[in-house]
Amino acid sequence: MKITKAVIPAAGLGTRVLPATKSMPKEMFPIVDKPAIQYIVEEAVKAGITDILIITNRGKGVIEDHFDRSPELETALDKPEKQDILEAVKGISSLANITFIRQIETKGLGHAILRAKNFVGDEPFAVMFGDDVIIGESPAIGELIDAYGEFGKGVVGVKLVPESEIHKYGSLKVENLHDNVFKCTDMVEKPQTPEEVLSCYSILGRCVLPPEIFGILENTKPGKGGEIQLTDAMKEIAVTEGMTAVEYTGTRYDMGNKLGILQASVEVGVNHPEIGEGLKEYLKEFVKTL
Ligand code: UTP
Predict the structure, then answer these.
(1) Which contiguous run of DSSP H or E holds residue 205?
(2) Most buried among 99, 111, 220, 233, by the most CB within 10 A?
């Protein structure tokens, strides 16, 4: 079955990057000249997604404005020497069919995804975390969609995280199937003791889920942090039917984390056609002073 719908949860409070996120959504933080969420929408479109639901919250209306037309700006840019940027600005609103819904209360990622039940209907769908930008040759969500096609089970996008950090993430029980593809039969959110750690593979930013997740989420009680955890609902699928885990090939930048934001700017910046060379020169000089 072709996967054409994606849900982007972007309603989190972003407390790890306060005060910047007090009135500016972290999903709108720029990486060079594009907001994080636009990279995510472009990744979805590259993977064949046509319909996207962005889950927002109070104070995040600027995300809606970004994907809308901007008549005054477009008129101002309509000059012979500004045609490139005019096309770039106009193109944003026609990337995909993008709709929005608000998560009225910030009760966790699982609670946010449940808001997408009517939009998704009865088909498998992609989930792309609004603060995880993944840059690579192929769209990460496309690699997960391929694995859904191969095994017909829910898929989680994973990476290895350092053992010392695993208590901040989800930990997965995995068994290699081939290449970068694993069978996943259990998971635990933020393991607090070494006994709870199943492996250092963690879900980072992307999933493909069957519509059955909604029935499970409706019965999922608040877990770690008093929030309705998506991991708790996915665990039920993992231990019963099993899931597939794909170690996607791109590099992931956590835009909800101070260091992640800076890494994204530097690494995307050095490859940018306009500023790449200048940034490399600057960095070479700057590191000599460290
Ligand atoms: P995070 O835990 O990374 O985001 O959630 P957060 O809650 O904003 O983080 P901090 O700890 O306060 O800094 C992963 C994704 O789920 C969304 C976030 O926007 C992010 O894209 N999310 C989280 C929601 O949409 N709703 C929620 O209630 C919680």
Answers:
(1) strand 201-209
(2) 233
Give the list of residues 6+ apart from residue 88 with CB closer than 8 angstroms, or none. none
Q: What residues form DSSP beta bridges with 7?
A: 53, 127
CA 238 to chain centre: 21
71 C-alpha to center of ligand 1: Å?
A: 32
Q: How far apart are CA 148 and CA 181, in angstroms?
A: 11
d(CA 174, CA 81): 54
Residue 247 to residue 28: CA distance in whole angstroms? 26
* Confidence tier at 52 by pLDDT (50, 70, 90): very high
What is the Cα–Cα distance from 45 to 22, expressed in whole angstroms?
A: 30
CA-CA distance, 84 to 90, in Å (whole number)? 10
Residue located nearest, by CA, to atom 4 of ligand 1: 12
How far is it, in rounded angstroms, from Cα 252 to Cα 243?
21
Q: Cα of 29 to ligand 1 centre, how many Å?
A: 15
Ligand 1 atom closest to Cα of residue 227 = 28
List residues near ligand 1 (CB under 6 A): 9-16, 55, 103, 106-109, 111-112, 129-131, 256
| Contact assessment for residue 167 and residue 266, using Cβ atoms and an 8 Å cutoff | no
How far does residue 131's CA lie from ligand 1's centre (Å)?
Answer: 8
Decide if 73 contacts 90 (C-beta within 8 A): no
Instruction: Measure the CA–CA gap between 116 and 132, rounded to whole angstroms.
Output: 19
> What does the angle CA 58 – CA 11 – CA 28 come to, to the nearest 5 degrees?
90
Q: In sequence order, what are the beta bridge partners of 160? A: 201
Placement of tokens 């607090």 in the chain? 192
User: How far is the centre of ligand 1, averaged over its atoms, from the C-alpha of 149 (Å)?
Assistant: 28
- pLDDT tier at 135, thresholds 50, 70, 90: very high
Confidence of residue 256 (pLDDT cuts 50, 70, 90): very high
